[in-house]
Amino acid sequence: MGTAVLRHAFVGSVTELLRAKYGLIVTSQRQLDGYVDVNVWVDVSDVITNPHINERHHDGYVVKLINENDSQRPPLLDARQRLMLYVNKAGIPAPLPVRTITGCYTSSVELVTKGDVIKRQIVVMSFFRGIVLSDLSMTPDVLQELGRITGKLNICMQTFPDITSLEYDSVWKVCECGQLLSLVEHAPGEKLRTMSISIITEFNSKVVPNLQTYQTGLIHHDVGPQNIVMRQDMDQRWKMAAILDFGDVCSSCYVFEVAILLSNIFMNEFSRSMTTSEMALTRDTVFDSYTAVKPLSTNEKEVVDICVEARILQCCLLGEKTRETDPGNDYIGDYICWELLESLCNTCRD
User: Fold this and answer.
1) CA–CA gap between residue 60 and residue 290 (Å, rounded)
2) pTM for this entry
């Protein structure tokens, strides 16, 4: 079944799924952006027939149809939901998972269309109303707060009691960047293919041999402006309200978390016009604010730049490959930033 057809089938079945499995009556809904998962925002009635929901969440809920690979790993999905509860209890706002009528954090569904039956898992979480940081300009104060909250999150997750349940294999992990050579053919043009090989080669020579020396623990693995909700306080100042999307959490190197954060900042549409000096200042501001909370070694700092380049290359190559199979997914385009990658490479090599 095509991705677009599956997406349409799920969106059309959300009302009945929530009524039957969560005891919620949908009053309105709209589809949200998503890469491999399908996300739908819903508002619901005050009439709730679920013993695990005390009251309606007034900002609504996000219903997530989990991608095919993760749907085959219910224990992983359950651990992610429990991690979000753990993070919330530690004082870091994140979406709160919603239990089904039977008390589970995940639910199996069957979607039928054109004679095909597709089995997937769904999860439901509280929605945070506000402005996503990627739609705002990132001031030095915001960059510092991004570094600090990421460091704080990493420290918090160190003590999560079920880290092993969050282990999984994925081509999206930064540690897999050294294996990207097989995807270089998806780069558009010989110049970009040559640049891609250069980045992969440098990553394999400078990072891979030293992986065992870097500090490791649970990382968010996709923290950035696209996953931070902002709200204005009484003085009309923007403040971070929540960290979203724990679907990539895994045990990995903390220096990769910093590299992913920087990559997501640079790939943000409002940041792509940064000058060379602005990029360097952003990198130093984020790194210094992160390490003020979660210290990293000099050796780890020395590989930040190549890790950023490798991460953006990973997004470009996987994005190009995914676009071939899901051309109707406009969200994919946000991850393909060849001009940015060229600019970063030129900056770091000058």
Assistant:
1) 32
2) 0.92
